[in-house]
Write a structure and sequence with these properties.
Layout: H1 2-23, H2 39-45, E1 53-54, E2 61-62, E3 70-74, H3 75-80, H4 86-89, E4 96-102, E5 105-110, E6 124-128, E7 131-133, E8 154-161, H5 165-168, E9 175-181, E10 190-200, E11 205-218, E12 222-233, E13 238-239, E14 250-264, E15 267-280, E16 288-290, E17 303-304, E18 313-327, E19 332-349, H6 351-362, E20 367-372, E21 375-387, E22 394-417, E23 430-451, E24 456-476, E25 483-491, E26 494-505, E27 508-519, E28 522-523, E29 536-537, E30 540-553, E31 558-570, E32 573-578, E33 581-586, E34 589-604, E35 607-620, E36 642-655, E37 658-669, E38 672-673, E39 685-686, E40 689-700, E41 703-710, E42 718-723, E43 733-737, E44 742-750
Parallel strand pairs: 6-9, 13-17
Antiparallel strand pairs: 1-2, 3-8, 4-5, 6-7, 8-9, 10-11, 10-44, 11-12, 12-14, 14-15, 15-18, 16-43, 18-19, 19-20, 19-21, 20-22, 21-22, 22-23, 23-24, 24-25, 24-26, 26-27, 27-30, 28-29, 30-31, 31-34, 32-33, 34-35, 35-36, 36-37, 37-40, 38-39, 40-41, 41-44, 42-43
Length: about 750
């Protein structure tokens, strides 16, 4: 019955896609045949590229006027393409790459700033509106647990390339990703309901339901906007050891509510709450088992072998935010207060690592082992700034920032029967408890923009921070031993910004940007005193030099954004070993240099062509410290030299009240080197890959039908590759791939 049901649904999806494609390419029956337009008529019908507004500089301004490299992806474009996460749109941003082991476990990399898949702390900050989200320390998996919000109610995603340490503070060495939500509207009531279906090649089926409503509570003064979603993302990996199919299936549920009060034209107050849960019984067991020598799957493509009862992955995001904007005329006051939580629970199979050692010791033939790793994070932030009007010759801004994080992180090694999952009567194997880890940061920042002439502006800024971390750790068991200690660390990092820009006219600008960034240091995890390892590690820092050019041409039908950059990265936080323990230290230097470009062109009304590309040369400029084998000149891990995307979007009338859309993108990700090794030996090469995505839609009245195909040619692009054994070069390796070809359809009703 299940087989017939899936066949029926797949046929229905194919039929729906065919209807959408036919509706997007042919006129309604009985409509007059369109006349072939003359070249002059086509030129007159050509529409301007829409002006894109962003808040990258914590001011509302046109993208064209921001003197730094910023990309923006609209929420409407994400919905049309069926995009649900970073993997669906990362290639649309030059210089942005991902190291992803599975859904919910993705490291963002901008301009090549990464030390590899095991990087403990993120080098790219994540913001939801004005609120920072995610950990600023190494104690809560911040390098991998990047929040990947459902696009249900996003107005746009802004990606700021290059360090943002002066305005946004810690963890923005490579740049920043900002999710901008749609604000409530106090002028009218409206909403939508949407449902969708998807199917992945060689895997299961997915479903989605989304709804939003906007209600004015007091006309023109007070409004409420609420959205909710429930999504099942199809799995496509089979576990040959247990016989279970589609084990990486995931459920994503959540929503957001915001109330906005605007009693006067000069005052607004917003209160919002956001929640998102991701649940899966198999995502913790990442990847497909491959032979590291050939990268060929050991059990077949989309297959792995993992012990029974393992793979649990659950993560809960919560964010509560209060924002106040007051305009006094002579200055604007902006206050953003937020409290966020993150709860993670995983159970990862590590039988391939511990089995060869522990099974002979315990006399077991089929012992299985896993690590459960519950993590909690609570984070409070307060950002308060005062800024002058933007039409002054001297434009200024001053601000203060405070954050407090509290983290717990436990790791417990479990023994069980690998076939049944039943617990075994074994002595305690190992338990480590990290926390509470308390991180506090106080910062003051300021910038001044001198508009020397109507064309020339010079921006200078600085930030002084004071960080303090207190960290407690206990441990017990056969693999850990009895340990218990508390350590502390302090840092006082500073960052700066020098950013002159020159407008040749309203449509052409060039700029220079010299900026710095940092990540906080802290006490080391897992290393008891007395092993010769450092008790703590310091912040790593970088300075970026950027020359950029922005232009809008051909009566605003073409835009070009290009830049060249050079980054000097020092005191890199890298993993080393001592006495069998891994720890973080500061050592080595690296550079990243490259070119980025984005282009858009609207040759006719409704038609937009686009392209972006980036070249990134990221490499060590000094050997890594003892315990890690990387040498001067070695490429940084997981950074392709070339990325590129070409796109086409076409919106057009059909007739009889119908309209249509169609689009396609082609993306390319170059080859990458894998992680630096703690033993001598060659690093593996992750091959280059490309992909084609298609989408089409038909619109009639309040109804919208959208269809999409992702990864049309079913490419097997590798996004992560690590050994499953204790030996970093030992077989098997776990390889994570981009999702196989996915076909889907969404139906939306607006009211």
């Amino acid at each position: 019955m299940r087989h017939r049901y899936l066949q029926h649904n797949r046929r229905a999806v194919c039929a729906a896609i065919a209807v959408a494609l036919i509706g997007a390419t042919s006129a309604a029956p009985g409509a007059d045949a369109p006349q072939e337009p003359t070249p002059e008529a086509t030129r007159k019908q050509a529409a301007d590229l829409p002006a894109v507004v962003v808040t990258a500089n914590k001011r509302t301004e046109k993208l064209q006027d921001v003197p730094m490299a910023v990309s923006a992806i609209s929420g409407d474009d994400l919905k049309r393409a069926g995009a649900n996460g970073f993997a669906d749109y990362a290639t649309q941003v030059p210089g942005l790459n991902v190291i992803s082991t599975s859904e919910g476990q993705t490291q963002l990399v901008l301009r090549g700033i990464t030390s590899g898949s095991g990087q403990a702390n993120s080098a790219v900050s994540t913001y939801i509106n004005d609120a920072p989200y995610g950990s600023s320390t190494v104690y809560a998996g911040g390098g991998l647990l990047t929040p990947d919000l459902d696009p249900a109610d996003l107005e746009r995603i802004e990606v700021l390339r290059g360090p943002q340490g002066t305005l946004y503070g810690a963890n923005s060495l490579g740049g920043l990703v900002k999710f901008v939500t749609v604000p409530p509207d106090a002028t009218r009531a409206f909403g939508y309901v949407s449902t969708g279906y998807s199917s992945v090649k060689g895997g299961g089926s997915g479903f989605s339901e989304r709804a939003m409503f906007n209600v004015p509570l007091i006309a023109d003064t007070l409004a409420l906007r609420v959205n909710a979603y429930d999504r099942k993302d199809p799995g496509y990996i089979d576990n040959v050891a247990t016989g279970k199919s589609d084990v990486n299936e995931a459920t994503v549920r959540g929503g957001r509510a915001e109330v906005r009060w605007t009693p006067t034209k000069t005052l607004s107050v917003s209160l919002s709450a956001l929640a998102q849960n991701l649940d899966s019984d198999g995502l913790a067991n990442t990847g497909v088992d491959v032979d590291p020598a050939t990268l060929q799957p050991l059990y077949g493509y989309q297959k792995q072998s993992r012990a029974a009862g393992t793979g649990l992955f659950k993560i809960k995001y919560r964010l509560y935010d209060a924002s106040v904007n007051a305009d006094f005329g002579w200055a604007k006051l902006v206050s953003s207060s937020s409290y966020s939580t993150q709860k993670v629970n995983t159970d990862q199979d590590v039988t391939a690592a511990y089995g060869p050692v522990l099974n002979p010791a315990f006399g077991l033939d089929n012992g299985g082992y896993s690590i459960t790793d519950p993590i909690t994070l609570g984070k409070f932030t307060q950002d308060l700034r005062l800024q002058s009007p933007e039409d002054q010759a001297l434009e200024w801004r001053v601000g203060v920032f405070y954050t407090r994080e509290s983290t717990t992180n436990q790791q417990l090694v479990n023994g069980f029967d690998a076939t049944t999952g039943a617990p075994l009567d074994l002595p305690p194997l190992g338990a480590i408890s990290v926390g509470p880890g308390i991180f506090k940061e106080w910062a003051g920042y300021a910038d001044l923009t001198w508009h020397v002439t109507s064309q020339l502006s010079i921006l200078v800024g600085g930030r002084y921070s004071k960080d303090k971390t207190t960290f407690t750790q206990t441990g017990s068991g056969l693999l850990v031993g009895d340990i218990g200690f508390t350590t502390r660390s302090k840092d006082t990092p500073t960052t700066f910004l020098f950013n002159p820009s020159f407008k040749f006219n309203d449509d052409v600008m060039a700029y220079i940007r010299v900026a710095s960034g940092f990540r906080p240091g802290g006490p080391n995890v897992g290393v008891p005193p007395g092993l010769g390892a450092p008790v703590s590690f310091g912040p790593d820092k970088l300075t970026s030099y950027e020359l950029g050019f922005k232009a809008t041409m051909l009566d605003r039908r073409m835009s070009l954004d290009a830049d060249v950059f050079y980054i000097d990265w020092s005191h890199i936080q890298l993993t080393s070993t001592a006495g069998g323990f891994s720890f973080l230290g500061n050592g080595g230097k690296a550079k990243s240099q490259g070119v980025e470009a984005s282009w858009k062109y609207a040759p006719a009304r409704g038609l937009v062509l686009s392209a972006n590309t980036s070249y990134t040369d990221a490499a060590l400029t000094a050997d890594t410290p003892p315990g890690l084998f990387g040498y001067d000149g070695d490429r940084l891990p997981w950074v392709p030299k070339w990325n590129a995307t070409i796109g086409l979007d076409y919106d057009f009338p059909i007739g009889g009240g119908w309209s249509g859309s169609a689009g396609a993108t082609y993306n390319y990700v170059g080859g990458r080197k894998t992680d630096f090794l703690p033993v001598p030996g060659p690093r593996l090469n992750a091959p280059s890959y490309h992909g084609i995505n298609l989408h089409a839609g038909s619109y009639y009245g309040a109804w919208t039908l959208q269809a999409y195909v992702k990864n049309l040619t079913n490419q097997r692009g590798i996004t992560s590759l690590t050994s499953e054994t204790i030996d970093p070069q030992g077989s098997p390796f776990a390889a994570s791939y981009v999702p196989p070809r996915t076909v889907g359809v969404n139906v939306t009703y607006d009211f």
